Amino acid sequence: MEDFAAYVGLDWADQKHDVCLFDTAGGSRELSVLKQTPEAIDEWAAALRGRFPGRRVAVCLEQSRGPLIYALLKYDFLTLYPVNPKTLARFREAFSPSRAKDDPTDAEYLVELLLHHRARLRAWLPDDEKTRELRLLVEHRRRLVSDQTRTSNRLTSLLKGYFPQVLEWFPEVGTALVCDFLLRWPSLGALKGVRRSTLEGFFRRHNSRRRDLLDGRLEAIKRATPLTTDAAVINSSVLLARSLASQMKATLAAVREFDRRIDELCRAHEDFELFASFPGAGPVYASRLLSAVGARRERWQTAEELLRLSGVAPVVECSGQSRWVRWRYFCPKFLRQSFVEYAGESVRHSQWARAYYDEQRAKGKGHQAAVRALAYKWVRIIFRCWQTRTPYDETRYLECLRRKGSKLVPAEAPASA
After folding, report:
1. In the chain, domain spans
2. Whole-angstrom distance, CA of residue 271 vs CA of residue 290
3. Is the pLDDT of residue 129 over 90?
4. Taking Cα atoms as reference points, which of 182, 188, 173 lies closest to residue 239?
């Protein structure tokens, strides 16, 4: 208890936060309410600094990111202990089986967690500013890509109902070329009567200059027959097609801007080349792996800690003589997604990864289960390379597997006499 001048439990909400402060000197508890405004938070932190000058204050709260924790980051005398919301819920139910909930009481429970179970909690060690920015950028980019896929699917479904020829003329709907095409000619009727030179100029401006492809498209446009002549269907679909094309075009531009900024941060990061060395990482997965692991090597002592935190490691449950393994439900979902998606991509680029994936499928596991098992192995390799600052070498790793007699690599042919 002498490590901190006070323990604070913060039950946060959108508009206000309930605060419970335990003074380690006097043993008293104080309840208060803090508004979710920059001014109120700054005033509260300044009062704490003045009350406990030169000493640290421990703060326990239910999140590891969000507006409140971003606001508290600038106060160097605060040590933050974020806990999983499920941890607080289970702790509350231990003393309130009825599951009655009250925000001030939750703030007191957070203080209790610090007082009696701080050894089991992990103080939050934020990465440097550039790494944290990179982590947020790759997450935002992933959401934009999901929006892009969703918009593309909606546009494809819409075109099938009134203008299916577009799907034949262009192999991919989610491109700037198709967006501009639909914004200019959103229906077959709008396209009919357009001069060949106008269409040729449009395609050339979008870098579609292959003569055979261009001639094929122009001939197909000339021969096209409308799927429907119902004005109600066409007019309503045209409005939606233009809207979806505008959304798609804006999303594509946003993804390019994110890629530019992510590339700048990665090129300036000392560990980027290390993560780029993994087979199939490329600029996308290298940046995601870098942001997932971070820059602070003191954060994890073993690869198992990273595996559990990321949710890649399964959960083993035992009761009596029964034992079963299940999916880890509570974890940072994007962190797990980064490792699992990279493992799936590595199958196309790594010899041993392909062999391990095929081995798992031969055992009867589905695709996702096989990829998760592969991700478990990759995290251990990534962690080791990261800790030792050693870029990954596929040839070296294959040789190591061969010396151990692994079935994932073929044995060396015996030397001829």
Report:
1. 6-124, 131-266, 272-403
2. 7
3. no
4. 182
CB 8 within 8 A of CB 58: yes
pLDDT value at residue 412? 63
CATH topology of domain 131-266: Helix Hairpins (1.10.287)
Q: Confirm whether 6-124 and 131-266 share one CATH topology.
A: no
The superfamily CATH assigns to domain 6-124 is Ribonuclease H-like superfamily/Ribonuclease H (3.30.420.10)
pLDDT band at 415 (very low <50, low <70, confident <90, very high): very low
Question: For the residues 184-194, what does the mean pLDDT come to?
Answer: 91
Contacts of 210 (CB under 8 A, 6+ apart): none
pLDDT averaged over every residue in the chain: 90
